[in-house]
Specification:
Elements lengths: L2 H15 L16 E7 L1 H10 L6 E6 L3 H10 L5 E4 L5 H5 L3 E15 L6 E2 L1 H9 L16 E5 L4 H11 L8 E3 L4 H7 L4 E6 L9 E3 L1 E2 L14 E8 L4 H11 L1 H7 L4 E2 L2 E5 L3 E2 L5 E6 L5 E3 L2 E3 L5 E4 L6 E5 L12 E4 L2 E7 L8 E6 L3 E6 H5 L4
Length: 378
Amino acid sequence: MSTKWFRTHLITIVLLTTIIPGCLSPLGQKSSPVTTQYVGSSTVAVFLREAELIHPHLRFEIDSEHESEGGEQAILDRRTMLAGTARRPTSNVLREGIVATEIGRDAIAVIVHRDNPVPDLSMDQLAGIFSGETSNWKDVGGPDLAIQPHVVGRESATREVFREKVLEGKDDSRCKVVRPDQEIIHEVAQSPGAIGHISFSFLQDVNLVRPLSVNGQAPAVTNFDYPICRPLYLLWREEAPRMEEFVSWCLSDEGQQVVMRHFVGSRVVASVRSVSKSRNTTGALIVYTETFPFNDGGIYYYPHLPYEIFDRRGQALVRRVRNHRGRNDEKPMRILLAPDLYLVRTRMSSGESPQFFVTIEPGKTTELRVLDQLQGVE
C-alpha cells in the first residue's frame, strides 16, 4: 500500500463521518436536542424530567403551575403541543381531536407526620377525616390529638381524584388548601396532627412524612391493588410528528422503564400473590399464557406462548421462559424463583404485551392466568 493511497482514503473517511444525519453537524459538532414546552400536571412532569435525561432528541420547558386543568386549556388554545393530566381527559379535549395517551398510573398517597403511630386507615375512615366528621386521631386508633387535614388546590387532579374515590361527594372545605402540590409535604411535616394527600412520585427520598396503608394496601410503584390511583395522560396533536415519536418512545420498553421509577407502567394489568403451598424453600411460578395451535400429523395441540420475567423495576431481565417443553406439550412450565416481587411481561397473538406484578413467596406457588386477569376474573 502506498502512502498516497492511505492518505486519500483517510480524508474520505473523515469527511463521511462528519455528515451522518442526526449524529454530527457538517462542522463535526453534535446536534442539540430540541426544547419543547410542556404545560400541565406536576405529577406527569416528574416523568418528563427523568425522560429528558435519556431521550436523545427532546428537552422540556415545564409549566405545571396550573396543573392538569391548565394543561388541558393550554393545548385547547394551541399554546402548547404537549400537555399532561393526572386524570382522564375531559370530553372537551377529546372532541377537539387532541390525542390522549395513557403512559402509566399513579398512586395518591395519604401522608402523616413521621411520628404519627397510625399505620393504616380504611377508605371510610379517610372520608370521615377529610370531610370533618372525624376530628381526633384517637377515634381511628391514634393518640388524643386533633386532626389537621390538608388538600391540594382544586386545579390539581390529585384533589379531584381523591374526592371522587374517597369522599364520594362529601364536602372537603374544612381542609387547609396548599399550593403547589408538593408543598403539602412540608405542611404535614410541621404538625404531628396533620394529614394530607400527594402523588406518591413526590415521596422518594422523603423522610419527614410517612405514607399510610389504605385498606391494608401500601402505596408503591409495584402495587397495582392500592385503592387510590389514577391514570396519567400525555395530550398531543397529530400534526406534531415530534410529539408522536416521543409518545411512542414513552410506550416502548425503554420509556416504560422510566415510567416505572415512580409509577405503575401502562401495560401492567394486575398484581398476583401466591395462591398455593409448595414443597420448595424457594418460590414457584406458573403462568398460563395465551395458547397457540400446533398441527402434529392431523392432531392439534395448544402449547402456551413464551413470556419474560423482569425485576420489580422492569429493567433487568431475570429469565425468558419458553413455557412449553415441546409443541405437543399443553402444560405451562413451573419456574423456581427467589422470593421477591417480579414483573412478568407476556405476549399476545394480537401483538399486545400486558404486564403483571407477581409476588413469589418461599414454599408457595404463584399462578398467573393471563386471560382471566385481562377479563377481570378474580
